[in-house]
Specification:
Chain A is an alpha+beta fold. Chain A has helices at residues 3-27, 29-46, 48-52, 54-85, 95-98, 119-130, 161-167, 169-172, 176-189; strands at 93-94, 103-106, 114-115, 136-142, 145-152, 193-197, 199-206. Chain A has a 5-stranded mixed β-sheet with strand order 2-4-5-7-6, covered by helices on one side. In chain A, strands 1-3 form a two-stranded antiparallel sheet. Chain B has a single domain (7-138), classed as Rossmann fold (3-Layer(aba) Sandwich). Classes of the chains: A alpha+beta (210), B alpha/beta (139).
């Protein structure tokens, strides 16, 4: 097989996988909704009978918990699917703007450097990790890129947030690692990169020439 | 006062359509509700919907997006208040839905209380839209 044919085949497979991801995230929610709402209707119509029966209370509680877990995991697949399909426009922003408000340490001067990336996407990732607390970011220049390194205590496996989510949807759905995985998909489509190992993540952004 | 506005539910998932009708019975007990679970009856069922009806239409009908029907409703029956419902709806999807002619679009909620508040708001919005149209005609 020639390289061109292999590349074309890979592209077709990617499109198919994206379609499958979309179908899974969308189509599975439909029967889940049916089950969740039907259980709620049943519980409402049985009223006091449920309250009097320990078994019924356990059964309805378990159904609700199971449905919430499924909903959470499907939501993660939906977000990843949207990130894969989202239309992106070329974007850029000063590094100082992207990192404004965070405690940044760097051996080199970052002023005047422009990152070729959607700044809101990077901010969303950093904000998700920071939460209400301060976030320390270590910035390291590496030729035409800058690496932004910060702690993510929730991350327990590498080599990236997306790998972690793929490895354990149950563990990471609805967490900060999910936000980082979705951001990873979007950044990598723009020429960025995200890698991670237990406890820390590095976002690598392409820079305009100095 | 609860709405008496006629409602048309278009959803090929019979379970969803029946649940929706059940919830509507508590939100607007006096509103007549029609159901269409067979997409092959479109667009006819839309064109023959009662005057001023709220139409709740699913996004995917037998795997086919219902956007063309939104355009038909907008062009042929501007009196209808068409709302698209979907199991999953991104902001981009929502913008596309509104461009196609729906008055509103929403993700199907995961609890009955959220269904009730969403449907109640949609019926109120439809009533307000009609009141504004009436004012504009009078003015």
């Amino acid at each position: 097989m020639t390289i061109d044919r292999a590349t074309a085949q890979t592209d077709v497979e990617q499109v198919l996988l994206d379609s499958l991801l979309y179908a899974v995230s969308h189509d599975l929610r439909s029967p889940l909704l049916t089950m969740t709402l039907s259980a709620e209707l049943l519980e409402t119509s049985l009223g006091d009978e449920v309250a009097r029966s320990e078994a019924a209370k356990v059964a309805f509680g378990s159904m609700q918990q199971g449905a919430q877990d499924l909903e959470r995991m499907l939501q993660t697949l939906t977000l990843l699917s949207r990130a894969r399909r989202k239309q992106l426009e070329p974007a850029q922003a000063p590094l100082k703007l992207i990192l404004g408000g965070y405690e940044v340490t760097s051996d080199t001067d970052l002023s005047g450097r422009i990152a070729r990336i959607d700044p809101l996407q990077v901010r969303e990732m950093l904000d998700a990790v920071a939460g209400e607390a301060d976030l320390e970011v270590r910035a390291t220049m590496d030729g035409a890129r800058v690496d932004l390194e910060f702690a993510v205590p929730e991350l327990e496996q590498g080599p990236s947030p997306l790998h972690a989510v793929a490895g354990s949807l149950k563990q990471y759905a609805g967490t900060t690692v999910e936000t980082l995985a979705v951001g990873q998909v979007l950044l990598e489509r723009q020429g960025g990169a995200v890698r991670g190992e237990p406890g820390r993540v590095v976002i690598s952004l392409p820079l305009e020439a100095a | 006062m609860t709405s008496t506005r006629p409602i048309l539910v278009v959803d090929d998932d019979i379970d969803h359509a029946v649940i929706l009708r059940t919830v509507l019975a508590s939100v607007a007990p006096e509103a007549p509700v029609e159901m269409c679970t067979d997409p092959s009856r479109l667009p006819g069922v839309l064109l023959e919907a009662p005057e001023g009806a709220v139409v709740l239409i699913d996004r995917l009908l037998r795997g086919v997006e219902s956007f063309p029907h939104l355009k038909v409703a907008r062009d042929e029956r501007p009196d209808l208040y068409v709302v698209l419902l979907s199991s999953a709806l991104s902001p981009e999807d929502r913008a596309r839905v509104l461009q196609s002619g729906a008055r509103d679009a929403a993700e199907k909620p995961g609890s009955l209380s959220l269904w009730r508040s969403m449907l109640g708001k949609m019926l109120t919005d439809a009533d307000e839209r009609d009141a504004q149209r009436g004012d504009a005609r009078a003015g």
